């Protein structure tokens, strides 16, 4: 018996037609954000939420929320040669994958998409890095696999500079999102 080819995964902005009703990543706070607050946050321009679905299907496999932020220069690790004022960043506030889609590369695809958004944004306005607030040590390990570094005194807050993302894209380590 031959199996049907799997439809490609797409990542788009959260829209009304996306099915959020039974999303379950195992973390009630992340589930509730997607189901009840993500569209409201977007409508009020506080953040944007992007979702991963299979082409032709509105069931959400994973999502992330992204916004702008700034971090005081005193909070960054020493030796980065930063200006003495708040440093502009893109904040990846939440990233979650439905339990049924975990282990299928959804988290990686969402993170790469967020990194691309940060890079594109940095070409329009100043953005030094993408910053994430990991929910636990397992999430910290996930981000560290992609080169994120911890802030000195905040082990669950990590960053990756746009210069590093730019180099990854230029050497074709990461696909370009258009």
Please characterize this protein's 3D structure.
The protein is α+β, with helices and mostly antiparallel strands and 178 residues long. The protein has a single domain (9-170), classed as Aminopeptidase (3-Layer(aba) Sandwich), CATH 3.40.630. It is built from 4 helices and 7 strands, in the order E-H-E-E-E-H-E-H-E-E-H. It has helices spanning 28-43, 106-124, 137-144, 162-170; strands spanning 9-13, 48-54, 62-71, 87-97, 129-133, 149-151, 154-161. It has a 7-stranded mixed β-sheet, sandwiched between helices. The longest helix is centred in the middle third of the chain and has 19 residues, at 106-124.
Write the layout of secondary structure elements.
Elements: E1 9-13, H1 28-43, E2 48-54, E3 62-71, E4 87-97, H2 106-124, E5 129-133, H3 137-144, E6 149-151, E7 154-161, H4 162-170
Parallel strand pairs: 4-5
Antiparallel strand pairs: 1-2, 2-3, 3-4, 5-7, 6-7
Features:
4 helices, 28% strand, 178 residues, 7-stranded mixed β-sheet, 29% helix, Aminopeptidase, 7 strands, alpha+beta, single chain
Question: Helicity range of the residues?
Answer: 25-40%
| CATH level-four homologous superfamily name | Gcn5-related N-acetyltransferase (GNAT)
Q: How far is it from the N-terminal to the C-terminal residue, by CA?
A: 37 Å
User: What count of domains describes the coordinates?
Assistant: 1
Query: Which CATH architecture would you pick?
Result: 3-Layer(aba) Sandwich
Q: What is the CATH T-level topology? A: Aminopeptidase
Strand arrangement across the biggest beta sheet: 1-2-3-4-5-7-6
Overall pLDDT, averaged? 90
Q: What's the level 1 CATH class?
A: Alpha Beta
Count of individual beta strands:
7
Q: Determine the structural class based on helices, strands and strand pairing.
A: alpha+beta
Report Rg: 17 Å
The DSSP helix count reads 4
Unreliable spans are none
N-to-C series of helices and strands: EHEEEHEHEEH
The global form is globular
Main sheet: strands, sense, barrel: 7 strands, mixed
Percentage beta strand: 25-35%
